[in-house]
Write a structure and sequence with these properties.
This protein has eight helices and six strands, in the order ββαααβββααααβα. The longest helix is centred in the middle third of the chain and has 77 residues, at about 125-200. The strands form three sheets. It has a two-stranded antiparallel sheet with strand order 1-2. A two-stranded antiparallel sheet has the order 3-6. Strands 4-5 form a two-stranded antiparallel ribbon. It starts with a strand and ends with a helix. Helix content is about 70%, strand content about 5%.
C-alpha cells in the first residue's frame, strides 16, 4: 500500500476505500475516548458510554475527521488558515448532523443553549474553537501517524480488519436502530395513555393536565378519595408506567443527558424525573 507520494501525505480521497474506512473508525474511537474522559470522568466522575452506538465509537467524530482531511492539501502546511478552515467546516458538519438526527428521530441529542454564542443550541463557539485546534492536531500530527500505522499493518491486515469491523459496525447499527424503535414506542405509549386520561377526565375540576406527571398524580390522589370513580385497570396502568424500567430510553438519557424530544417533550421529561427519583432512592439504601 503506497500512502506517500513525493514525500507529501496522500489525501484521504486517494486512499483505498478500506484504508479510508479504518481512518474513519480510528477517528470515531478517538472521539469516543475523548467524550468518555471529558464528560464521563471529569464531569460525572464515573464511566459513561457517550457513544450513540453500543461499541466504542462516536461516528460524528469520524465524519468530522474525514471532512478535515478533505480540505485542500495546500492548507496542510499552514496554521491559521488550517485552524479557521477546520473550525468552520466541522461546525457545519455538527450543525447538519444535529438537524438531520432531529428530523429523523424527532429528538435533539445535544443542546448547547446554556452556552454563550450558540446557534439554535446545535453549535456553540466553544466547540467551534475546539474543532479548529482539532483540525491542527489531525492534519499536523494524527493523520501522518495513522498513515504510518496502516503501512505497518500491510494490505492484507488492513483488508481483513476493515471487513471484520464493517460486520461488527453493521450489527451495532442494527441493534441501535432497534433500540431507537423501542425508545419511540415507549414515548408513544406514554403519550397515548396521557391523551386517554385527558379524554376521560379533562372536564373534571380535580384533574390536572399540565403534564403527564400532574395527570398521573391527580388521578391517583382522586382515586384515594373516590375509588369507585376510578377503574382499577387505569390505576394498574399508572403503576406500570411509574414503576417500569425503560431500558432503551434510560440508555439514551445516560449517553445524552441534555437530549430533548421534539415530539415527546412531556413524556421524556416524565422519564427523566422517574429515573432521577429511582437513582435517589437507590443511593439512600
Amino acid at each position: 500500500m503506497i500512502i506517500f507520494k513525493d514525500m507529501n501525505m496522500m489525501p484521504v480521497y486517494e486512499l483505498p476505500f478500506k484504508a479510508a474506512f479504518l481512518i474513519f473508525i480510528m477517528f470515531s474511537m478517538v472521539g469516543w475516548i475523548s467524550e468518555v474522559l471529558y464528560v464521563g470522568i471529569f464531569h460525572e466522575h464515573k464511566f459513561v458510554n457517550r457513544g450513540f452506538l453500543y461499541g466504542p465509537l462516536c461516528p460524528v467524530y469520524g465524519f468530522g475527521g474525514i471532512v478535515i482531511l478533505l480540505l485542500p492539501a495546500k492548507l496542510y502546511s499552514t496554521w491559521i488558515p488550517l485552524f479557521f478552515a477546520s473550525m468552520i467546516l466541522c461546525t457545519i458538519v455538527e450543525y447538519f448532523v444535529s438537524w438531520f438526527m432531529e428530523k429523523m428521530f424527532h429528538t435533539r441529542w445535544w443542546d448547547y443553549s446554556h452556552y454563550k454564542f450558540n446557534i439554535n443550541g446545535r453549535i456553540c463557539l466553544l466547540n467551534s474553537v475546539l474543532f479548529g485546534f482539532l483540525g491542527l492536531g489531525v492534519i499536523r500530527f494524527v493523520y501522518p501517524q495513522m498513515l504510518h500505522f496502516l503501512t505497518w499493518l500491510g494490505d492484507f491486515v488492513v483488508m481483513i480488519s476493515a471487513d471484520a469491523i464493517g460486520v461488527f459496525l453493521t450489527i451495532d447499527i442494527f441493534l441501535t436502530v432497534r433500540k431507537l424503535v423501542d425508545f419511540s414506542a415507549t414515548m408513544e405509549k406514554i403519550k397515548v395513555f396521557g391523551e386517554s386520561l385527558r379524554d376521560h377526565y379533562g372536564n373534571e375540576t380535580w384533574f390536572r393536565s399540565e403534564n403527564i406527571e400532574e395527570m398521573l398524580a391527580s388521578v391517583r390522589e382522586h382515586a384515594a378519595i373516590s375509588k369507585d370513580q376510578i377503574s382499577q385497570s387505569i390505576l394498574d396502568k399508572i403503576d406500570r408506567i411509574q414503576n417500569a424500567r425503560h431500558a432503551a430510553a434510560e440508555s439514551f438519557m445516560a449517553h445524552f443527558p441534555t437530549m430533548k424530544s421534539i415530539q415527546y417533550k412531556d413524556e421524556l421529561e416524565h422519564l427523566k424525573s422517574h429515573v432521577k427519583a429511582r437513582i435517589k432512592a437507590h443511593l439512600k439504601k
